Each structure stands twice: as C-alpha cells, then as structure tokens.
Amino acid sequence: MDDTDRVTGVIVDVAMRLHRRLGPGLLESVYEQLLAAKLDQSGFLVERQKPLGLEFEGIHIEKAFRADLVVNGSVFVEVKSVEQLQPLHGKQLLTYLRIANQPVGLLINFGGAVLKDGLKRIVNNYADLSASPRLRVNQKES
Questions:
Q1: pTM given for the model
Q2: CB-based contacts of 125: which residues, under 8 Å, 6+ apart?
Q3: Distance (Å, rounded) from C-alpha 138 to C-alpha 125?
Q4: C-alpha to C-alpha distance for 42 and 56, rounded to whole angstroms
Q5: Contact, 42 vs 15, CB < 8 A?
Q6: Which of 8, 45, 68, 136 has the most CB atoms around it within 10 Å of its CB?
Q7: If you ran DSSP here, which 8-state letter would residue 25 be given?
Q8: Which of 38, 36, 115 has its CA nearest to residue 76?
C-alpha cells in the first residue's frame, strides 16, 4: 500500500467515525474543522481553506479557489453537507486536482443518512487505481 492509499484510508476512517457519532445536519464548516483537528491529532499535516492559484495563458490568479483540506500536501478533501451529492461536486474536485497537479482527492458528504453513499475517491492521472471502481468519477470508457 502506498502512502496516498494509507492517508486516504485514515481520512475515510476518521470521517466515518465523525458521521456515526454526530450524524447529518451540521454545517459543512463544522465537519471540516472537526475532520481537520482529528487528522492533525493523528499526526498529519492538515491545511484548511488553502488558497490555490491558477495560471491561464499568462494570466495569474493568486487565489483562484480554496481547497477545504489538503492533507500531507497532496490529498485534497472537499467537504460537503448536502442531502445528496451532485455530479458537479466530483467534477469540481477533479478540476482542483488538475489545476494543482495533484493525484488524489476525497469528496466527503456528511449530509446523507449513510456516509458511504456520499464518499468518492477522485483520481487525476493516478497510476495506482486501487480504489473500487464505484468510487471513481473520472474513469475512461472501455
């Protein structure tokens, strides 16, 4: 298991514990803050609301978007608290990964009754596609 898989596994475990204990219904910012604090306690480097820049054809935008969480400098976590994820949510995270040239992100929706229904592992040109096909949003058509 590579480090990215280990990190994403811990993030999912912590998110599941949070959801089991608190359930749906809290603000996205509350889940984000708790998830960040628990990951920090576990020894991970966690950056919240990290501003990231974008360059397009010579135009640079210093703070084009904010990543909810960046764990260990490479795993992006987009936190939601909505009744149901929409396809746009996965596309948003994939775009963030592409812009930041990062391989893996997690989309975690705390708003549903069952966390696993709102959990997506998003990969951006990541060589080790060990995640279940059900968790991937950017699969190539066969």
A1: 0.84
A2: 103
A3: 9
A4: 37
A5: no
A6: 68
A7: -
A8: 36
Q: Are strands 104-109 and 75-80 parallel, antiparallel or unpaired?
A: parallel
**Tens of pLDDT, residues 72-114:** 999 999 999 999 999 999 999 999 999 898 999 999 999 999 9
* Number of structural domains in the chain: 1
The answer to whether position 138 is within a domain reads: no
- Token pair, residue 132, equals 């279940």
**Nearest Cα to 79, choosing from 88, 89, 71, 87?**
89
Domain membership of residue 135 (yes or no) is no
CATH number at residue 65: 3.40.1350
Q: Read off the tokens for 56.
A: 């397009």
Question: DSSP per residue over 124-136, as a string?
Answer: SS-S---S-GGG-
Distance (Å, rounded) from C-alpha 31 to C-alpha 69?
11
SS3 63: strand
